[in-house]
Amino acid sequence: MNDSIFKKSSPLRHEHQRVGIFIDTQNLYHSARSLYNSNVNYKHLVEAAVGERRLVRAFAYVIKSEASDESKFFEALADLGIETRVKDLQVFYSGEKKADWDVGIAMDIVRLSEKIDTVVLVSGDGDFLEVLRYVKSRGIRAEVMAFKKTTSAKLLEETDDFIDLGGEGGKFLIRQGKGARVNVPRSSHQTSQPSNQPSKMAPRSRWTLRRNLP
Questions:
Q1: Closest Cα to residue 29, out of 145, 184, 193, 174?
Q2: 9 domain-assigned
């Protein structure tokens, strides 16, 4: 595949576009940890996703941890104008544990599609291919932000614009042990090392959420 697909930067962004951001936090958590031993810099992520455009709503989808208090994490996201969607970890009789937000994220994108001009999907999961095709069929821009090394090739082919969260000199990463960070709470089914407590983030950004939307 031509590497230029990973360097898309469209001039079709403009200040009148209404943007919705949908963040698959578990996908980002695992990719950032396994590839870079780092956390995600959500402040820079949202800034890059919105640019000079107008943010309508931003959602982060989280699996509730059985072991830790996530309130500080949620507060830090709220300071950035990000709303959280929380789901409990399902534990079956067999002991198997399951948790994912794929259907919930896709449904939120569909529900909000009449209110926005651009969908920014923050995930490299190829399961979102059809929902991107759907929004594009309605004349909505479909943009993806994710880690190139763990992003579905089909998703990259479908997107109108792609930002590699592992690029730009580590702009979207916070290395372990360096400064303030926003961590994704570690669910009990995850086996990677515990995350550190997030620090208080900057005051609420300039982006305004429209609470009257679904």
A1: 184
A2: no
Burial of residue 79, with CB atoms counted within 10 A of its CB: 0-12 exposed, 13-18 middle, 19 or more buried: middle
pLDDT band at 8 (very low <50, low <70, confident <90, very high): very low
Q: pLDDT digit string (tens) for 90-117?
A: 665 555 555 678 899 999 999 999 999 9
The Cα 29–Cα 186 span in angstroms is 9
For the chain, give percent helix, strand, coil, nearest 5: 35, 25, 45
**Residues spanned by the domain of 149:** 17-175
Q: Look at the block and give the residue holding tokens 């999961």.
A: 125
Give residue 203's pLDDT. Answer: 37
Torsion of the alpha carbons at 121, 7, 77 and 27, rounded to the nearest 10: 60
